[in-house]
Amino acid sequence: QVQLVESGGGLVQTGGSLSLSCAASGRTFSGYVMGWFRQAPGKKREFVGAITWSDGTTAYADTVKGRFIISRDYAKNTMSLQMNSLKPEDTAVYYCASAPSRLKDYDSWGQGTQVTVSS
Questions:
Q1: Smallest Cα–Cα separation from 20: which of 87, 71, 63?
Q2: Taking CA 60 as the corner, what is the angle to CA 2 and CA 37, rounded to the nearest 5 degrees?
Q3: Are 101 and 31 a contacting pair, CB within 8 Å?
Q4: Bridge partners (DSSP) listed for residue 60
Q5: What is the chain's Cα-based Rg?
Q6: Long-range contacts made by residues 64-73, C-beta under 8 angstroms, separation at least 24?
Q7: pLDDT tens-digit map of 13-53
């Protein structure tokens, strides 16, 4: 059973940076896609970005492209989200998730970590 645990959330000022981490365990992740999602109060959960575990290919939502960077440590089974030039609208609970492949839905989720960007 896949387990995902996020860490690194907190409070940051507009324009600042913050890094989130997602520790994955429970199986080998070859072929998996690992993603970051976020949900702001009163809004639907939205896709932030994703990385293909085997080759490191990344994809980002337009709202974060150029500001956020996803990476993974293959040996440590961890995924990171480096967030730069943060804006108040980035305030949300951030979740990591995993999907068995690019063709399948995300089926395992972490508990989430709060990111608050003050104006």
A1: 71
A2: 45
A3: yes
A4: 49
A5: 13
A6: 64/90, 68/36, 70/36, 72/34
A7: 999 999 999 999 988 888 899 999 999 999 999 999 999 99
